[in-house]
Amino acid sequence: MEVIAERGYRGASMASVAERVGLTQQGLLHYFPTKDALLVAVLKERDQWDAVPDTRWRVDLLASLVEYNAMRPGIIQTFSALLGESVTERHPAREYFTERYARVRASTAAAVLRAEYGERLPNGLTPERTAPLLVAVMDGLQFQWLLDPEPVDMPGAFRDFLALLGED
């Protein structure tokens, strides 16, 4: 993750990743036969760190996730860099991010918003209309915070957004 965060996917070589983890390039290729396979494994591993069963999520816990993310800028930088690169055609992580965002929107609508508010939030929007906004605010705040962390209070700004949803 560190090598990809520092150099981007295209700039990271298998040799530099192998060196960072203390393997030969052939040793790394034993576990990850292609650079694309390594990238997808890195992304899946990152998701496992944040995995919480859908039934345990609540809106207020999302604010805790934003606070947690503020304590790990390197992971957030890697995720953000790969996300940005993945919007290009034929990027090896494009399918991964497309599928991930579909899952995140669906689980946010169902397990977080609908479970807490029902079919309508206090602001009148449905969970399905609100989920993409909530995800966009989380990701957008991460980009702003990575670029200029001093003036961007990522957890505070996210709590402000939750207040707009009707969450105190």
Portion of residues in helices? Answer: over 70%
Compute the number of strand runs: 0
> What is the average per-residue confidence, as pLDDT, rounded to a whole number?
87
Largest sheet: none
Computed CA radius of gyration, to the nearest angstrom = 18 Å
Q: Write down the overall geometry.
A: elongated
Low-confidence stretches: none
Topology as H/E string? HHHHHHHHH
Broad structural category: mainly alpha
Number of helices: 9
| Beta-strand percent range | under 5%
Distance between the termini: 35 Å
Structural overview:
With 168 residues, the protein is mostly helical. It contains 9 helices and no strands. It is elongated and about 55 Å long. The relative contact order is 0.12. The mean pLDDT is 87.
Outline the secondary-structure elements.
Layout: H1 2-11, H2 14-21, H3 25-31, H4 35-49, H5 59-69, H6 73-86, H7 94-117, H8 127-147, H9 154-165
Helix pairs in contact: 1-6, 2-3, 5-9, 6-8, 7-8, 8-9
Question: How would you sum up this structure in a few lines?
Answer:
This protein is mainly α and 168 residues long.
Provide keyphrases for this structure.
168 residues, mainly alpha, 9 helices, 0% strand
